[in-house]
């Protein structure tokens, strides 16, 4: 018995209906102004690098221009390790990993 394939294959999706992208799946956690800018405390990523994850987040929140501005001032931790001044395209993400998005905090 022959089966038929849909004319347009269904793209796998992440929780929240986000289309899956190549790369590991993990969680981005937003703090303070980043959380306010994103309108959510956390969301999934599906990306191989920090740059890819942040680009996808910017696209998801394109209707919130403050979010992109806040990201420019943030520091990042990937699985607990500070990213510092490393190029975000060189920071590899892991399956089940966590990216912490930390805006500057008053007093420190």
TrEMBL record:
Q: Which InterPro entries match?
A: Beta-grasp_dom_sf, Mopterin_synth/thiamin_S_b, ThiS/MoaD-like
Ranges for the region named Disordered are: 1-21
Which residues are in coiled coils?
none
CDD domains per record: Ubl_MoaD_like
Q: Which SUPFAM superfamilies match?
A: MoaD/ThiS
Q: Which domain of life is it from?
A: Bacteria
Q: What is this protein called?
A: MoaD/ThiS family protein
């Amino acid at each position: 018995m022959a089966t038929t394939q849909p004319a347009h294959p269904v793209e796998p999706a992440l929780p929240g209906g986000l289309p899956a992208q190549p790369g590991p799946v993990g969680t981005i956690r937003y703090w303070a102004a980043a959380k306010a800018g994103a309108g959510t405390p956390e969301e999934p990523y599906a990306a191989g690098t920090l740059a890819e994850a942040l680009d996808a987040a910017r696209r998801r929140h394109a209707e919130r221009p403050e979010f992109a501005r806040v990201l420019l001032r943030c520091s990042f931790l990937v699985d607990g390790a500070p990213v510092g001044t490393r190029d975000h395209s060189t920071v590899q993400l892991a399956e089940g990993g966590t990216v912490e998005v930390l805006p500057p905090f008053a007093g420190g």
